[in-house]
What we know:
The chain is of the alpha+beta class.
Amino acid sequence: MNSQRHRRGQVAEVFRHRFHDRPTLWCRAPGRVDLMGSHTDYNLGYVLTLPIGCDTWIAARPRTDRSVRLYTMNLGAESGFSLDRIAPDSQQRWNNYVRGVAQVLQADGFKLTGFDGVIHSTVPLSSGLSSSAALECVTATVFEALGGWKLDSVRKAVLCQRAENQFVGVNCGVLDQYTSCAGQEGCALLLDCRDLSSRPVKLAPGIGVVICDMRSKRELAGSEYGRRRADCKEGARRLGVKALREISPAEFYRRAGELPSGVAKRCQFIIEESERVLDLAAALQHFDRAAIRRLTAESFDGARDLYEISVPAMQTMVQAMMQAPGAMGARQAGAGFGGCMVAFVEEAQVKNFAAAVREAYFTSIRIKPEIYPVAAAAGAGTIT
Ligand code: ADP
Ligand code: MG
């Protein structure tokens, strides 16, 4: 792959310029897109998730002292810290994803080695494709390779999530880190967030996955995310369960009257969305067009009307996607409030689909979207 070689050459060149040497270790971790299952992870439900070819690399060289120095090509910024005194960096907040991982690994008893590193990512930052988890998971992979110990992928994911929760201070579920660590090339993962087990799901040949980044400003995502989590917690408490996962759709419809109407809407979305995950996994395996269309539409409508995580650009984008050639289904991705959406497209039509979406979306709101056809990539690891 020429583009990979080119990328490697560029990163090596930056490394030489910053650190006057060659990297001896290359690691990568992918971003992800959820194919179904918005906000189900923290309700311990199901998610169908896809590790994607956009990924984050760290080229590294171990140091003999206990310091970690990192330069990120995406932001053109450098930050360093000592493994003996890990405190948050209030100026360069991006470095906290790295520091957090170092901190939780050490707290769990892993021996860490300092290193010089250059970060380069093809995951767009802050678009909902999980650049933060990719950065955490690639960092853990570097420490793992330099330390000569091995973490199983689920534990690695949980530790990286802890880093984001406790050190960065973002109360995310485990979906992003799990996908980035446990992905298998060529497969989506059907993740059960209750016991953190997953099974690979192979999409039927001929189904393309296309991510459409709306490039609109994402606002509210942080504060509203916290409110949605609180609503779900309240719903679970009133229904007498630990998590909404414990309630089947049939039971929910019987008992919805026990909930204040706002909370009931949130719970309905989560409980139905988690069921849709299982249904969509089957539909994608069997190329069931009608089901793909129906399930994605129900997910999008529920996100707008019940979970209320939609913004006007998402409506514009879903229309552009569904009117484009080859479209089988389209829905939101990530936490909502803008960012990215995802479509299932007849593989032979992916190019035409992308051109049509670009044109229609730009004509409507004068913003150029970014369109990424994606394939299932492997989880975090070293690059040979
Ligand atoms: P998402 O995970 O959806 O991309 P987040 O807000 O969770 O969005 O994470 C984005 C943040 O992660 C960035 O603002 C930055 O601090 C950090 N980050 C991710 N990738 C990189 C990178 N390659 N270089 C530096 N910082 C990064
Ligand atoms: Mg993130």
